C-alpha cells in the first residue's frame, strides 16, 4: 500500500497512545516497515539506529530468528491455553519456574499479565487482597514517587506522577500519595548522594506519619525512574527506602518494567541494588516486545498470606490472556538469548554508550548526563550555570525528535528537554558510535535554532 494512503487511513481510524490527537492528524504517521539488529527502516526507505529499542522494550534487538521460531512452533502446537479451570501450558509453567529461579530472594510466585500497566494494576489488587486476608483492610493507602511512572491503567495511572496522565482522568484517587523524587540534577538538597538518600527517607517517614502507618499499604518505586526522564537514584537509595518500609510494615513494590531483563546490566536492577522487594513488576524485555506479556513477582510471604486467607475460595483476579503460551515461549527464548551473550554484550555496549554521552558533556546545551547500563539520558539547558530548561513554547522535544530522525537516529525526546536512550542490548560498537555521532549532530543543529536557544 502506498505510504500516502496509509497516512490517510491512520489519520482517519487509528487512535495513538499518549498523543495529541489533533497534532498527530496534522503531522501524519511515520510508518515503520522492518528492523534488523539495532536498526529500523521506515516506509520511505529511511534506515535509523533505534536508540530507544521501540519503547525501551526490544532488548534482544530486531530480527532474532530464534524468537520467531519459538513463537511459530508454539502457535502450531497450541496457540492458546487458559489458566482458568486449573488448566495450563508447558511454556508458561517453565517460564514461571525459570523466572523464580533468577529473581531476587523469595520472589517465587509469578503472575503473568499482558504488559506493564496491568502488572502494576494487579499488584494493587493483590495488595488489597493481602491486607484483607491478614484482617487489616484499613491498610489501603498507597505511596509513590514524584516523576514516577507506573502505567496508565485506571488505578495505576494515579500512582504515576506525570500530570499528562492525570489531567481530565479524575486521578490520582484520594488513597494515592507522593513523595518528592531523588532527581539529583534538580534536587533542592543538592546532588550529594547521602543528602538525597536522607531527604527521601525523611519524606517517606513524614508521609507515613501523616497518613498513619496502620493505614499505609505499599510504597512503589522504579529502580531508575524511566518516563520521568531517566532519573538514577544514588547507590544505596533503594536499600534505604526498602529498610524504612520493612521497619514500618509497608509492602515494597519495585517496578522493573523498564529496568528488568538486562536494561541496566543484570537480569533485574534489584539484584544490583541488593534488595528483595515484596513485589516486582516486569514487562517489555520479558518478551523483548515481540509479543505482549508482563509478569508480577510475589514473595513467599505475600503469596502464602493471600492463599491461606482465601482458603478454598477463588481469588477473583484474572485475564483471558494470563500466561499466554505463545508469549511464554517467546519469554523462554528471550531469557536464553540474554544468558547466552546478550546481557554481556549489553554491559559492554552500555559502557561505550555512557562514555560516548559523557564526551558530549561539554556541549553548550548539555546540562546533565546520567544513566546505568543501556539506559541513559542527557538533559538539555540553555544556561548551564542556572540550569535553565529549553523554552517549552518552542516545543523543543518535537524539534529534537524530528532532527534526530532526519539524522538517522530514534531517541526519546521528553517534554522537558531530556533526551532518553535505551538501545537494544545487541548493539555493536558501530551502532553505539552512530548513536553518539547523530546525537552530536542533532545538538549542533539545535544550538543553531533561534527558537530553542
Ligand atoms: N511501569 C513502568 C516503570 C513503565 O515504564 C511502564 C511503561 N513504560 C509501565 C509500568 C507500563 O507498561 P505498559 O506500557 O506495558 O502497560
From TrEMBL:
Essential cofactor(s): pyridoxal 5'-phosphate
PROSITE patterns on file: AA_TRANSFER_CLASS_3
Segments forming a coiled coil: none
Keyword Ribonucleoprotein attributed: no
Matching CDD domains: OAT_like
Database matches in Gene3D superfamilies: Aspartate Aminotransferase, domain 1, Type I PLP-dependent aspartate aminotransferase-like (Major domain)
Assigned keywords, A-Z: Aminotransferase, Pyridoxal phosphate, Transferase
One example GO MF annotation: transaminase activity
PANTHER family (UniProt xref): AMINOTRANSFERASE, AMINOTRANSFERASE CLASS-III
Family: Belongs to the class-III pyridoxal-phosphate-dependent aminotransferase family.
Protein name: Aminotransferase
Species per Swiss-Prot/TrEMBL record: Microvirga vignae
Amino acid at each position: 500500500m502506498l505510504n500516502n494512503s496509509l497516512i490517510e487511513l491512520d489519520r482517519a481510524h487509528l487512535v495513538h497512545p499518549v498523543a495529541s490527537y489533533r497534532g498527530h492528524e496534522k503531522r501524519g504517521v511515520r510508518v515503520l516497515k522492518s528492523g534488523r539488529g539495532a536498526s529500523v527502516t521506515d516506509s520511505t526507505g529511511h534506515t535509523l539506529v533505534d536508540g530507544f529499542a521501540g519503547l525501551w522494550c526490544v532488548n534482544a534487538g530486531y530480527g532474532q530468528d530464534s524468537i520467531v521460531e519459538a513463537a511459530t512452533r508454539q502457535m502450531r502446537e497450541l496457540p492458546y491455553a487458559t489458566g482458568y479451570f486449573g488448566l495450563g501450558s508447558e511454556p508458561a509453567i517453565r517460564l514461571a519456574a525459570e523466572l523464580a529461579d533468577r529473581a531476587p530472594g523469595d520472589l517465587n510466585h509469578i503472575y503473568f499479565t499482558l504488559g506493564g500497566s496491568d502488572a502494576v494494576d494487579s499488584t494493587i489488587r493483590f495488595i488489597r487482597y493481602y491486607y484483607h486476608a491478614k484482617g487489616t483492610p484499613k491498610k489501603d493507602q498507597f505511596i509513590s514517587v514524584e516523576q514516577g511512572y507506573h502505567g496508565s491503567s485506571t488505578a495505576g495511572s494515579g500512582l504515576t506522577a506525570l500530570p499528562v496522565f492525570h489531567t481530565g482522568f479524575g486521578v490520582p484517587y484520594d488513597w494515592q500519595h507522593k513523595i518528592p523524587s531523588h532527581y539529583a540534577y534538580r534536587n533542592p538538597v543538592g546532588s550529594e548522594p547521602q543528602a538525597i538518600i536522607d531527604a527521601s527517607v525523611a519524606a517517606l517517614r513524614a508521609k507515613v506519619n501523616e497518613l498513619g502507618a496502620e493505614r499505609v499499604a505499599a510504597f512503589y518505586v522504579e529502580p531508575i525512574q524511566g518516563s520521568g526522564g531517566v532519573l538514577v537514584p544514588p547507590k544505596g537509595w533503594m536499600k534505604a527506602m526498602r529498610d524504612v518500609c520493612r521497619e514500618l510494615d509497608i509492602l515494597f513494590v519495585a517496578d522493573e518494567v523498564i529496568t528488568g531483563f538486562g536494561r541496566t546490566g543484570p537480569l533485574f536492577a534489584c539484584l544490583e541494588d541488593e534488595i528483595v522487594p515484596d513485589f516486582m513488576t516486569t514487562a517489555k524485555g520479558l518478551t523483548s516486545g515481540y509479543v505482549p506479556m508482563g509478569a508480577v513477582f510475589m514473595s513467599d510471604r505475600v503469596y502464602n498470606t493471600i492463599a491461606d486467607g482465601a482458603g478454598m475460595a477463588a481469588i477473583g483476579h484474572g485475564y483471558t490472556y494470563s500466561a499466554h503460551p505463545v508469549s511464554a515461549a517467546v519469554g523462554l527464548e528471550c531469557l536464553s538469548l540474554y544468558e547466552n551473550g546478550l546481557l554481556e554484550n549489553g554491559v559492554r555496549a552500555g559502557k561505550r554508550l555512557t562514555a560516548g554521552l559523557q564526551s558530549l558533556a561539554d556541549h553548550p546545551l548539555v546540562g546533565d548526563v546520567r544513566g546505568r547500563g543501556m539506559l541513559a539520558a542527557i538533559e538539555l539547558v540553555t544556561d548551564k550555570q542556572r540550569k535553565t530548561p529549553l523554552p517549552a513554547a518552542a516545543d523543543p522535544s518535537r524539534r529534537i525528535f524530528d532532527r534526530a530522525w532526519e539524522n538517522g537516529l530514534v531517541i526519546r525526546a521528553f517534554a522537558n528537554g531530556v533526551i532518553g536512550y535505551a538501545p537494544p542490548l545487541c548493539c555493536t560498537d558501530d551502532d553505539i558510535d552512530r548513536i553518539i555521532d547523530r546525537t552530536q549532530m542533532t545538538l549542533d543543529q539545535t544550538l543553531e535554532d533561534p527558537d530553542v536557544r
